[in-house]
Write a structure and sequence with these properties.
By secondary structure, this protein is α/β, with parallel strands linked by helices. It contains twelve helices and four strands; from the N terminus they run βααβααααβααβαααα. It has one domain. 50% of the residues lie in helices and 7% in strands.
Length: 208
């Protein structure tokens, strides 16, 4: 089970825009007291300019961020161990450095590019992150598995513009069914798993 859970900005913004915060917090492997966020996110939201997210979703994100703390400051050498690679932004580099510093940590991310880019790290670093990363789609699989499907589908539909893959999987207007959504999510997770960094992913099924 993940202990200290580091949520990246994309994960928080998308779960909030999809109106799945409550469902996420009730997953059996999520402990609200162990959640952490990047300290910059509240300021980014208030500054504006975040495209593809609804005002309602951004409001939910701000409310959620008030309920758990930012990630603690890191020793500079922890961040310096992560090379600056295309696909890993400064916030994600900070998250990865935090995992190196506190090994009981996991990262929940909504950014496929970061997972792919981890494949370009040294074998030592890839090993350190193996089994420490959960992608957004895996979290949504777990939410679908644990909740009434029609209710989940009706909640996410107004916010699907925040993620093209999820828009395709759930459909923008026509009702989807559980089987087709689960198949679409599994296919997408499989495509991420096949990338050079895919070995770091946590299996959501093993967490339930």
């Amino acid at each position: 089970m993940p202990k200290r859970i580091l949520l990246d900005n994309d994960f928080i913004l998308k779960i909030s825009t999809l109106d799945l915060v409550d469902e996420f917090l009730h997953l059996p492997f999520v402990y609200a007291s162990e959640l952490r966020h990047l300290s910059s996110l509240p300021f980014m939201i208030k500054k504006g300019g975040l495209r593809n997210y609804t005002d309602v979703g951004l409001g939910r994100a701000l409310d959620w961020l008030l309920t758990f703390p930012a990630i603690e400051a890191l020793a500079p050498q922890s961040i310096d161990r992560i090379p600056q690679l295309s696909g890993i932004d400064p916030g994600e580099r900070f998250l990865l450095g935090s995992v190196l510093e506190i090994v009981e940590s996991s990262i929940f991310t909504g950014d496929k590019r970061c997972i792919t880019a981890i494949g370009g790290l040294s074998s030592e670093l890839r090993e350190a992150f193996t089994g420490k990363v959960l992608c957004l789609e895996a979290a949504i699989c777990a939410i679908v598995a644990q909740n009434d499907f029609d209710r989940v589908a009706s909640k996410v539909r107004p916010g699907l513009s925040c993620d093209k893959a999820l828009l395709s999987i759930f459909g923008s207007s026509a009702p989807s069914n559980r089987a087709s959504v689960c198949e679409g999510l599994a296919s997408y997770i499989g495509s991420i798993s096949s990338t050079p960094g895919g070995a770091v992913l946590i299996s959501w099924e093993a967490l339930l």
